[in-house]
Structure formats: C-alpha cells, structure tokens
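Quarterly update, task 2.4: 2-oxoglutaric acid-bound model.
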Amino acid sequence: MDTPQISLDSEKLAHDFNAAGYISIPDFFNSDEVAQLNENRERFIRDVVPTMSKKEVYYDDKSDGSTLKQLQNMDSLDAYFGKLMAPDSKLTALAEACLGEKVVPKNLQYFNKSPKVSTPTPPHQDGYYFHLSPNHAITLWIALEDVAPEQGCLNYVEGSHQFGTRAHGDSETLGFSQSILDFGIPNDLKNARKIPCKAGHLIAHHSRTIHWADGNVSGNKTRQALGAVFFAESCREDTRAKAAYQAHLDAKLAAAGKI
Ligand SMILES: O=C(O)CCC(=O)C(=O)O
C-alpha cells in the first residue's frame, strides 16, 4: 500500500493517549486504502493461511472455514502487511507519537467475530501477555468494515492504564486465554467507553488499558479488524517466560482439539 503521509499532531496525540489510555481516529484509512486492505486480507486468507502453522490460525469451529477468528504474524509472513508496519509507515509514526519514543513492530493480527459463533473478548490488558519491562506498548486496532455494538465493538476502561496490571486468570476463550479476575469493580463500570467504528477507523490502546468486546449478535455480519502491536524500543521482553506460557497454551489447545 502507498502510505500517504498524514499530518500527526504528535503533542496532542501523546497528551490524549496519556490521559485516557486510548485514542480514536475516524477515517485514519480512506475508502481506497480500506479497499486495498480488504483485497489483501482476502488474498492472505486464500494463499497464505493454508501454509501457516495451526498455532497461528484460530477458528471458532475448525471444521468450518467461515468461522476464521484470529491470525498472527501477518507482518512477517507477507510483504504487503509487513510494509504496513515498516519504519516509514503511518502506523509506525502514530505508535511513536503515542508512546513518545521509537518503536519495534511485533505482530500484526487479524480479529474476526463470525456471525455463526458469538464469542466475547474477555476483559484484559495486553501487557499481561507481553512480558515487558517496562510495560510500555501499543495496539493499533483498525476496523476493516463498519463495526456496530451488536457486532462486538471494543470497549475501553478510560484511565485504567494508570493503575498497573490487574490479576488475570484462565478465560477458556480461544485467542484470548486470560481475563481480569475482578473485572467489574465500580471504577471499571463508571469509566467504560464503547467504541463503534466505521471502516477505516483506527483506535489505539496502551498495553495497560483494560479492554473487551461482546460477542457478535448481529445475526448476519462479520466483525473484521486488524491489530498492529508495537513495543516501545526501551522495553525488554522476557522471551523465556513468554515462550514457556505459549508452549503451555499450545499444548492445552491441542489437547482440547481447538487447534
Ligand atoms: O478484536 C477484539 O475483539 C479484541 C482485540 C484485542 O484485544 C486487542 O487488539 O488487543
């Protein structure tokens, strides 16, 4: 994709992101760019997914390809998606403006909620999975189509990034294995913000920001998005702890017949 320069008011972005723990930018991608993203998403699912490890491809129902739910590492598997997170891309510029330093691209994910199987995304903080010190990273979530509340739009707890990482436990949800154990305390409910999106809308959250999504109860619509994860350059990743958790999870999912 050509990556036309957008003018980023870095100071304002950093201010808003630091205050709320998230930002919301409608029309970050215009309709031509959204069309290109979706053409490439279709090509990737047709040509690349069949070559991927089953650990990187989740279906709600393994026997039904139309329930494709999540993909990992699209940036490292495909030149088009790699370019989206390249150092000169507008996603990288946005991530750097929000985090206030250089960033390292980590993972481009695809998230869908099929209308056939409605699985909520449990409340969580991405940093719990990332094993970072300091916990300073960002996920840019890009709507590939209009996402209304009944399709399972994202919800944030505004300001939650200021209060550290909460205790998480097994959620038994494929793709989102961990959930905040005491979610629903008054502060969570008071500061909850629902973010419906139009196609091309970008929302971005800090790795300490609590977020979740309801299931897709639209009856007939998908809910497709990309999630681009960048770590701040100053972070150190505990790769051993991360690999150990991933191996444990992969074995558990395989034993349960989910992957
Ligand atoms: O798309 C979803 O339902 C959840 C996405 C998410 O948790 C994330 O991007 O960090």
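Highlight for this quarter: Residues 111, 121, 126, 139, 141, 211, 213, 225, 227 surround 2-oxoglutaric acid (CB under 6 Å).
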